Amino acid sequence: DGTIKVKGEYVKFANSEGADADGTTVRIFLNGEEKKWMGGEIQGKFGDDRTKSFDETYEVKAGDILIFAVNPEGNDSYDGGKLSVTITEAETGGETEPVIEEVEPDPNRTNNTTLAGSFTDKQGNDGWYYGSCDWDSTKFAMIPYDTEKGGYFYKTKPELKKDFVEPGNGRNAAYKWVVAKDGTIKVKGEYVKFANSEGSDADGTCVRIFLNGVEKKWMGGEIQGKFSNERSVSFDETYEVKAGDILIFAVNPEGNDSYDGGRLSVTITGDEVSSVGMTAKKSKATKKSAKKDDKGTAPGAANGAAGIAGVLPEIKKEDNPQESTAAEHSTEMTESAADETKKEEATSTAAEETTPEAAEETEESTETAGARETRKPEESAEADSSGERKVAAEENGRKEIP
Predict the structure, then answer these.
(1) Rounded to an integer, what distance in angstroms lies between the CA atom of residue 184 and that of residue 163?
(2) Which pTM value belongs to this model?
(3) Residue 164 and residue 223: Cα distance in Å, rounded?
């Protein structure tokens, strides 16, 4: 296991004597994955030898397989050439692997962000991570930050900055963003592919957007092939997401990584579920519940008296005797009102439980008792005397003379 350096060159011999000769191409594969493609100068027909060189660095494990494949293109006329390869263990010189720094997650982060505005020298700022992945977004790996380059880069491509991106070595350059809140997000942006006509074998790039590993958008066409002017593709997507979902913007090198530089811009806006909105809904529900309770409960005088008593301020007698006396008087009135209320409630309860005949007797009894209570002392005395005479007369069988 370790790191290897793979250097060499392929020389394509002249093929102009072949009427239909069309040259060759060369590919390097590691465990079946294309790592390097070489063509351009060695394709077509020419009267002199043409050379393609390579200098690659690969992380390998014991048993991994490298294949150097020479392809005959359309036909095999005059396809002779020479391949030389030198493989050595990479000298580390005591060099340690760089530490990948990450920021602490922000619990107050929202679904509103831009790639350029959130770009820093630390992974994870505002939910953004920078690295490489396979063409289908799998095997995402973070890349350390290179201070000299001002972007994420380690020894070889891919390279990612806020205004420059280049895939390479069989890997996609990948910008990853982690969703902050549940809700709906708008994902808008543009990818600009820089001119690549100076690269004889340049073939452009393509871009994919993945949500949790599912391809949601593919962009190619204008940004594929060879061209002398900048080409761009834009996107405007809407996704339903949950906190922790993963978006990956992957820039693919296509057949090779020659002159594959470009620029990606991304703006994400969200209308995530607001805690304020949920609080407002709870407040309305509480108010409705309170109204329902008010309708279902008959307020009594005792409740009202208790309410009055509850808001009376605490008064110290030594501070103001007059105010203290007034407070005591108010309290006595309150207590008296509460007692009267209790009596009324008791009377009401008894009335509900009494039969019609008993109710009439109770009414007569109450009226008689009321009349007695309202008579003056002298009227009461005369009534008592009259009553005695009436009783005596009845006993003697005589009528009382009024």
Answers:
(1) 27
(2) 0.52
(3) 15
